[in-house]
Structures are given as structure tokens and as C-alpha cells.
Amino acid sequence: MVKGDFASGSCLDTRKNDLVDSMADEEPSLEEQEKACHKAIAKWFIRSGINPNKIKIPSFAKFMSYLNPRFPPSASKVEKEALEIYKECKEKAKKFLKEFDGQVTLSYEWMVLGNEYTRGYSIKGPILHEDFVCLTAHFVDDNWKMKKWILAYTTDKKVPMEDIFIYPFRNAVQDFEIESKVSALLLPNDVDYDEVTLDPFRKWIEERGKNQIIPRVSLLYCCADLFRLMVDDVYSGLSGYLLEVVRMLVGWGSCSSTNWNVTLFHLQQGVDLKAEDAFSKDEVYDDYDKPSDEDWIKIETYCTLAGCIYKVAKELFEGEYSTANVFFHLIAELKFMLNQELAKADSDYFIGKAKKIMERFDKYWNDMFLILATASVLDPRFKTKYLEFYCSKKEVNVEGSKAETVLDYLSNLYARYAASNISRKPICSVATIDSCDSEKEEEEDYDDEWEEEEDDDDEREGKDDKQKEKEEKKPDAYKDFVLFQEYLKFEGSPRELHESELDSYLKEPVMEWNKDFKALDWWREESQKYPILSRVARDILSIPISCATSWDAYVVFKREPPEFVLSMEPELANAMMCSKKWLRL
Description:
Layout: H1 2-26, H2 30-48, H3 58-67, H4 75-99, E1 104-112, H5 116-122, E2 131-140, E3 146-154, H6 167-176, E4 182-187, H7 195-209, E5 218-221, H8 223-235, H9 240-250, H10 260-275, H11 278-281, H12 293-317, H13 327-343, H14 348-377, H15 385-392, H16 403-419, H17 436-473, H18 482-491, H19 501-507, H20 519-525, H21 533-541, H22 570-582
Parallel strand pairs: 1-4, 4-5
Antiparallel strand pairs: 1-2, 2-3
């Protein structure tokens, strides 16, 4: 007994010594520890948008030395790690997009440093680049989550001028091998981005991608950009002197705001004070200059027309990111409001400005009507009801838009999805690559606990496997019936003998109106019922109607690049901007 105990103790000591030796062997070297430290800092800087040169600031370097006195951080080493992180994450992003069975929209945005205040006072350090082209992929993953990945953030001055509009798209598509995934391009509202300019790229990608579901790449235009240009059309009638007069009257701190909603707020303050006759009643205004009657007409015109735009913009851009289904009825509402204001106008100045912005609006509406209306039909709160209602209103539907055109487009789109093999399976929520690492760690923790359970399950699984093998070996003669297989593609789906999913969806009553309704959540829950139509909905609803949201949607010029990239080399700026959304891959 004593001997056995001694042997047992000796065995435990041996195992303990082996474990200690093993841990000593596995302990990383100082070089590896330093590399891991700089990699952690690089990830922090990428997530937070911090320029690695910040390490060179003495106070920051001192702070970092307190955190880790063994390895003082080096800006060059952090930059090196950031580039390595980008390469690693990019391969994972490419793999994901290659295996993704949905459609992708690419958005193009030219970001320019244009604000003098930002340039002169806000930015620390040298400005190496004043403009960047941001190319972003928009899609909804298999967990029905909206994704927005920057694929390229470039400031390449070597691109030939004749290729400047096409190069970013072609380069990103080739780089990520997504020729067969791109269904739409979201572009600025600019004369340079028209069908003639983009036609060579469309032909190129259509020939290479051979997208059977959406063979023709759609050209779409940014809604926030439209609103900015419409507001600018009205703002152009206000002189700098007039703005300064109003600024002094209402206590407006500065006229240098880069957001048009701020300008609207302060000018509306002036209009409200005038309506109250405050400038005549209150002696405090006696020593101030006042706008003339003609100037007040210009200010009131701006407040009325920009106010209509702001009402809609606030619903679209403030709060959570909106899916495409909410744009049709809100932009139609804007058209109705502007038409009402124009109908009751009695000022030539107001009428001139209103007609100018309506001309711009109508072009956008005609270009975007089909995709916006289709997205609206895929909202179960509307289906075809709002579209039919809109088309019946002569005061807004002056162009004679037909509901039948939209339904024909959706029916043809549904038929192409139904004819593809992948669309016959419902979209099932899967463990996304975002969560793979955390799941691996959990699996490692519980492997020991599950070993016994797995042993018990082996016999049951063996029986199940044999049954599956029998089912899989069962011949399916229909696979060899060429004519019948062509029939299935022609008809759309084996289950469409009487009624398609689209017909079934449209026949059901619309949902009760709920402002907080989430379309993606609804389609995720109904994907088993509508396996084909839910895929159509996922790809249509993932189309971004605006590049900018929230505060950025109100800029008066183009959006500005983040300050931290302005003093970076192009390669590093691209790596840090792209990797931010890829770090969780």
C-alpha cells in the first residue's frame, strides 16, 4: 500500500516536471513578446483611428512606457504590424466574399479636405494627401446583418485621367475576385458618373462575371448627395454679407459650419424672430443691420425648401442605418411637400428656386424609381399598396409611372433567382467568420467535458450515417432528364406548380403600420416560408441608397477624410481604413 502510494506520488511528480518543462519550452521569446506587443497596439490604433506617429509625441510615449516598460513602442514597428494585419485580414475577407452566395453593391465616394477651419486649426502634423477615394462593399450576410466593408481607400495620383472613374471599381473587383457578385454601383450625383462614363466597366464586369441572377449592373445615385446639391441650389442666393447680418441678429457663433442643417437652424431662428416682430419691439436690435424685404424673401425661401428636405433627411439618416425599403415613401413625401410649396408660392424668386431643385429631384427620381419601388414592395407593411397609391396620385406622379413596370421587374428578378440552384435553399443563420475565433476558444475549454458524451453518441451516429448513405444512394432519374431539368429552370422552382412564393407573398394582407419595423428581421424569420423570395429581398434591401448617414449626410461639400489618415503614406492609410471592419474576421 505504501509502495503503491509512493509510486503514485512519483508519477505525479514526473508529470508535474514534464508540464513545467513544457511550459518553459512554450514561453515566447523576448522578440516574440515585443512583436505581440506592437501587434496589439496596431490593432488598437486601427480600431480607434489613431495615427502610429502619435507614439512620437513625448507625453504619449511616456504614457505607453508606464503601461509596458519592457517594450517601449516604436511607430515604425506598429506601422509594420498594421500592414501585416491588413494582409492577413484581407485574405480572410477575400475568402468570405468568394464563398458568399448573395449580391454585393459597390459604393464610390470621393472624400476631400475642403474646410479651412479643419485645415488650419484641427489637424496636427503635415498634410500629405488632401483627397481619397473610398470604395465600399455593401451586403447582408447569412445572419441577416448589414455589412459595410471598405475594400479600397486610395489616393493614387498615377491613374490616367481617362481611367480615373473606372480604375477604383475594376481594381477592387479584380483584387477580391467578386466579378460575379456585383449587382449595383452607388455613385455620386455628378455629371461625370453617368451611363456613358461607366458603360465600359459595366460591359467588362458583365462579360467576366456572367452573373446569371442579375446580368445587368445597376447604376444608382447617393440620396444624401442629392439633398446636399438641392440645398446648395437654394443657398447660392444668400450672400456672405446677408449671412453675417443674420448671424449677429440671432447670436450665431460662426458661419463656418460644414453642415447645412446647422445653417437652416440659425436662419429659421431669424425668420421666427421676424414673425414675432422682435426686431422692432426690442431695443437691443436697434444698432444692428437688418435684412431688406428682398433679403427676407431669400432667407424664407431657403428655410421653406431646405426645411422640407430636412424633414425627410432626418427620418432617413438619423438613428439606425436604414434599409432600402424606407426610401420610396419618404422621398415620395418630399416630392409631395415641394409640389405643395410650389403650388402656393407667389414670389418669382421662390418659384425659380423651387423649379430648379425640382428639376434636379425629378432626374434622380426617374433614375432611382424602379429600385426604390421594388424595395418598397418587399416591405410587408406596403407590398404593392403604397406603389399603387402613389401611381394613382396625379399631383406627384406626373411622369406617369406604372405599378405594372415594377411588378414585371420583380417577377423577372424572382424567376432568375428561382432558376438558380442556390436560391432553392433557404438562407440559414450560420456561425459567421466574425465569431470563429471566440467559438474555437469555447470549444477548446469544453473538449474534455464532451469526450465522454461523444463516445456515447458514436453508436447512434453510426446508425444515422448508414441511413443517410442509403438515402443518398437512392437514384434520382430526374437528374438525367434533360428536358425536365430545363422545365424546372423555365418554371422557376419544383414547388411552383400552382403559385409562386412571390404570388403568395403579395396575396397575403399587409402588416399593420409600425414605424420601428425591421425588414431584415422579418425576412430572416420568414426565410423558411419564402426560401427564394427571401434571397431576392436580402439582396435588394442590402442596396445602400446613401453613402452617408447621420451627421455626415448634412455636409455642404464632400465628406472629409478622417484626420488621422491625412499625414499617412497611401499604403498605410489604405491598410488601416480597410482593416477596421476586418479585425473580427
